């Protein structure tokens, strides 16, 4: 299992990586993300305008967990004419810990911050998905703010090109069975952190990966 940028972003950075998105078959998508741009409530910031105004008074520490989200941070800074001190964190947990410890000011988190949002300790100021976040439906997307790209990811089960079709179908069915079962702990975890399991297969999932690849090519063309 891997996240979609493994296929739709990483190979664009360097040919030395040794593979492309066409080298794999995508079996089933298991979990979406709820990629939010997050601040602490005690920062006093409630929206993107507040963060931009604060950044104009001095560089804010902006936590990211991947180069792709670094691109997103750059595009935000470019749009609003501010500069951030970008800090690489180890996964969403690293961003979350950095925010709560006040080591960073703002950062991208993919869904594990839902408890903090519900408790009121954290605030989403933007969705980096194609749609608004289920945990913060009143918060606009980056696309709505004029940044025409999405930065969410999806967890997918994949295999090398040429996998036996029967094996591919059997694997998809097994994952679908577990993640469709209302009593499943795996389904409960995915729903709690990320939302409804998408369970895309076949052409629909292949198209999603292809669409993300196109999106990422446009992002890199913009920033290079």
Would you kindly provide a brief summary of this structure?
With 224 residues, the protein is of the alpha/beta class. The protein is built from 9 helices and 8 strands.
Mean pLDDT: 95
Quantity of strands, as a count: 8
What is the topology, as strand order, of the major beta sheet? 5-4-6-3-7
Shape: globular
Uncertain parts:
none
Task: Work out the radius of gyration.
Answer: 18 Å
What's the N-to-C terminus distance? 30 Å
User: How would you spell out the order of helices and strands?
Assistant: EHHEEHEHEHEHEEHHH
- Largest β sheet strand count, sense and barrel closure: 5 strands, mixed
Helix content bin? 40-55%
User: How many helical elements?
Assistant: 9
Strand percentage, roughly?
15-25%
- The helix-and-strand class reads alpha/beta
Task: Describe the fold and architecture.
With 224 residues, this protein is α/β, with parallel strands linked by helices. Helix content is 42%, strand content 18%. Strands 5-4-6-3-7 form a five-stranded mixed β-sheet, with helices on both faces. Strands 1-8-2 form a three-stranded antiparallel β-sheet. The radius of gyration is 18 Å and the shape is globular. The two termini are 30 Å apart. 39% of the residues are buried. The model has no long low-confidence stretch (mean pLDDT 95).
List keywords for this structure.
224 residues; alpha/beta; 5-stranded mixed sheet; 3-stranded antiparallel sheet; 9 helices; 8 strands; 18% strand; globular
Question: What topology emerges from the helices and strands here?
Answer:
Blueprint (H helix, E strand, L loop, with lengths): L1 E2 L1 H4 L1 H4 L10 E8 L4 E5 L7 H9 L3 E5 L2 H14 L3 E5 L2 H10 L5 E4 L4 H6 L2 E6 L27 E6 L4 H16 L4 H9 L8 H22 L1
Parallel strand pairs: 4-5, 4-6
Antiparallel strand pairs: 1-8, 2-8, 3-6, 3-7
């Amino acid at each position: 299992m891997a996240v979609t940028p493994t296929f739709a972003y990483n190979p664009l950075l360097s040919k030395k990586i040794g593979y492309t998105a066409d080298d794999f078959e995508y079996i089933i998508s298991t979990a979406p993300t709820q990629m939010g741009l997050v601040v602490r409530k005690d920062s006093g910031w409630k929206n993107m305008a507040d963060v931009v105004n604060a950044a104009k008074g001095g560089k804010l520490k902006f936590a990211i967990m991947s180069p792709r989200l670094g691109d997103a941070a750059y595009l935000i800074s470019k749009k609003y004419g501010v500069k951030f001190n970008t800090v690489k964190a180890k996964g969403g947990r690293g961003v979350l810990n950095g925010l709560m410890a006040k080591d960073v000011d703002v950062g991208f988190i993919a869904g594990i911050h839902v408890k903090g949002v519900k408790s009121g300790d954290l605030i989403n100021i933007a969705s980096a998905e194609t749609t608004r976040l289920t945990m913060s439906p009143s918060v606009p997307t980056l696309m709505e703010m004029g940044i025409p790209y999405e930065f969410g990811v999806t967890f997918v089960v994949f295999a090398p090109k040429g996998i036996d079709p029967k094996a591919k179908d059997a694997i998809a069915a097994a994952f679908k069975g577990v993640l469709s079962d209302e009593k499943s702990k795996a389904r409960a975890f995915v729903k709690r952190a990320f939302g409804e399991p998408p369970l895309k297969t076949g052409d629909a999932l292949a198209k999603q990966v292809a669409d993300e690849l196109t999106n990422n090519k446009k992002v890199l063309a913009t920033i290079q």
